[in-house]
């Protein structure tokens, strides 16, 4: 089989056939370390990018699947909310709409008190705009409408703080004050039976409670918190859709908010963390790739005599250059491909591995009162894999240029003078 001379010698130097002397053994050892460093760097980069993709996915699909993209409010509670919901839902940029009444309240059980966001919902429409139904039993919404024994659905974080479970009772307290004069009045208190405790695995478990529309209205008293929640086609265009809808509504006390105001900081933090961590790991790959420089420099020093003999036998400068580029390219290619395979395997199993480690150690590394979700998500994107593997190989190839140029400049007479 025809083998180009440069590639044949370069592959032989890289490990196919090595002499057994000490110098060759040291070169082999350093070359192996360079390859291992590149494998670890590429694999780590793929896993980190997959984890950051997972956090981004959980924000978009889970957290913003439960919470709305846009909410349109009116300062006056005397609004035909079903008619307004139908009007907003007919917009081509809106996928679904549901009326809601939001109240900031305190939940109390015995001596334990915790703040929470109470959402009064219409069970018939809330499932269209929120995925909260995926975490609840079908009969839970019906329990909210029980007039004799009003029900409330709590997140697991709230339930744990209060020490309650399904079937227990608690009180919801809404402080009352005049927004104009600031005069304080007696707080409104209502008793509720816990219909269900839901676990979404997100930060919403620590703050969200659901009651019926009428119960939320009674808790709000004269203070309006009523509005219409919307789910739009393009999440990133939610603010623009909200502003357009407000201009199309009749003049009044309409105002709105979108997900970027409530969870925008979280989204920006995820994106910034992804960029910073990606940059740091890319530097690790670059360091591992440029370890090839030290490997090839030692090979050039070790092979001075061989290079001189090849030159005297007629090898051109270009052939000598390509010999050492071939060696570095092999190290880079093997390191990047193996690292890519390890990284893909790690990205696909990291969630289960961390969950298993938590189970063995009895420790929860991520908690939803600190992190967006209470588990380590991962989403592998093949475009990221190609980018990282390609970057690792290209950096390794660039690292070969300096030692290869030095090898091509070896003068046969000077190298053989002392032989």
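Sequence proposed for the structure above (419 residues):
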């Amino acid at each position: 089989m025809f083998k180009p001379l440069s590639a044949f010698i370069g592959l032989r130097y890289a490990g196919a056939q090595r002499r057994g002397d000490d110098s060759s053994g040291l070169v082999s050892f350093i070359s192996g370390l360079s390859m291992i460093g590149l494998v670890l760097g590429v694999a780590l980069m793929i896993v980190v990018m997959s984890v950051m993709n997972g956090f981004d996915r959980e924000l978009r699909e889970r957290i913003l699947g439960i919470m709305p993209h846009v909410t349109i409010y009116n300062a006056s509670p005397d609004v035909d909310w079903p008619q307004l919901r139908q009007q907003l839902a007919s917009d081509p940029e809106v996928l679904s709409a549901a009326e809601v009444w939001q109240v900031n309240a305190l939940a109390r059980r015995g001596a334990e008190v915790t703040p929470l966001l109470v959402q009064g919902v219409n069970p018939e429409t809330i499932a269209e705009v929120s995925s909260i139904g995926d975490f609840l039993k079908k009969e839970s919404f019906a329990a909210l409408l029980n007039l004799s024994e009003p029900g409330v659905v709590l997140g697991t974080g709230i339930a744990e703080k209060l020490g309650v479970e399904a079937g227990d009772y608690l009180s919801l307290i809404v402080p009352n004050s005049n927004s104009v004069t600031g005069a304080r009045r007696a707080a409104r208190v209502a008793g509720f039976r816990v219909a269900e405790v839901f676990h979404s695995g997100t930060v919403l478990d620590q703050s969200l409670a659901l009651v019926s529309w009428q119960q939320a209205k009674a808790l709000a008293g004269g203070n309006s918190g009523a509005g219409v929640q919307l789910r739009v086609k393009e999440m990133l265009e939610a603010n623009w859709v909200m502003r357009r809808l407000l201009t199309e509504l009749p003049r009044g006390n309409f105002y709105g908010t979108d997900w970027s105001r409530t969870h925008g900081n979280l989204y920006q933090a995820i994106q910034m963390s992804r960029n910073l961590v990606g940059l740091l790991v890319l530097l690790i790959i670059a360091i591992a790739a440029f370890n090839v420089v030290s490997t090839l420099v030692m090979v050039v020093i070790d092979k001075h005599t061989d290079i001189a003999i090849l030159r005297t036998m007629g090898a051109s400068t270009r052939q000598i250059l390509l010999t050492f580029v071939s060696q570095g390219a092999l190290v880079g290619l093997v390191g990047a491909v193996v690292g890519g395979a390890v990284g893909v395997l790690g990205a696909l199993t990291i969630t289960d591995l961390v969950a298993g480690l938590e189970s063995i150690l009895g420790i929860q590394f991520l908690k939803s009162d600190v992190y967006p979700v209470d588990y380590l998500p991962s989403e592998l994107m093949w475009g990221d894999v190609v980018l990282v593997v390609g970057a690792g190989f290209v950096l390794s190839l660039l690292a070969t240029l300096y030692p290869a140029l030095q090898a091509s400049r070896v003068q046969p007479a000077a190298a053989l003078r002392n032989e």
